[in-house]
Write a structure and sequence with these properties.
By secondary structure, the protein is mostly helical. Helix content is about 40%, strand content about 10%. The chain is elongated.
Length: about 220
């Protein structure tokens, strides 16, 4: 049994070291590239991307650990998706209908407000779909509807009195007023006289008279 010589062992050792060095160099380059790409996916700042790659390149093991600890917690795509979700949630909250009576948020499927009992929608009599109160036509079945929830203001049962026009011309009668009754003169403290018309006395009412004498004579003749 022959043993390898020192020259042969040296050749094997050089081959193993060269292979290990090549693998370590490839791993080092891949870590630098990974750090650069990972930082580019998390930040748009080119200086931060180059700095992360240099830290991993200069300090292969410790630099990678430092980068993993200090890198941004989320990528740009994750931040964009989160912003979209927040915007959609805010838009849904803002577009949620409000009650015209109490200004509280209500559900789009409510007919009455749960807080102040204000009517929000009405049902179609044919297809029972929810309609807005101002709609007179159902967009689902096409049937016309009378607006039962529109109340006209009550009209006044009496006519308003005509306004007095101060600039209107006075009405002059062409015929004199006819005075009826008996004039009565009354003296005032200033020595003047006032004339007061009194109503004439009413004529006496003709009452039926009974002739007692004639009725007695007729009764005696009959006897």
């Amino acid at each position: 049994m022959t043993f390898p010589t020192l020259a042969t062992l040296a050749d094997y050792l050089v081959f193993v070291c060269a292979g290990s060095g090549a693998l370590l160099a490839a791993l080092w380059v891949s870590l630098v590239i990974w750090a650069f790409r990972d930082m580019r996916s998390r930040s748009r700042d080119p200086f931060a991307q180059i700095f992360a790659a240099l830290v991993v390149a200069i300090l292969p093991g410790v630099g990678l650990l430092i980068y993993v600890i200090l890198r941004p917690p989320e990528t740009l795509s994750e931040a964009y998706e989160r912003a979209l979700e927040e915007e959609a949630l805010l838009q849904e909250i803002e577009e949620r209908p409000k009650c015209p009576g109490c200004s509280r948020q209500v559900d789009s499927s409510w007919i009455l407000c749960a807080h102040c009992h204000t009517r929000l929608k009405k049902k179609c009599r044919d297809c029972e779909a929810l309609l807005e109160l101002q709609w007179n036509l159902c967009p689902y079945c096409g049937n016309h509807h009378v607006d039962l929830y529109h109340v006209e203001p009550p009209q006044s049962s009496y006519e308003s009195e005509p306004e007095y026009d101060a600039l209107a011309e006075p009405v002059v009668r062409s015929e004199p007023y006819e005075l009826t009754g008996t004039p009565t003169f009354m003296a005032t403290d200033d020595g003047d006289y006032l004339v007061e018309m009194t109503d004439p006395p009413e004529p006496p009412v003709d009452e039926p008279t009974v002739d007692l004498a004639g009725s007695l004579v007729d009764s005696e003749k009959d006897a």
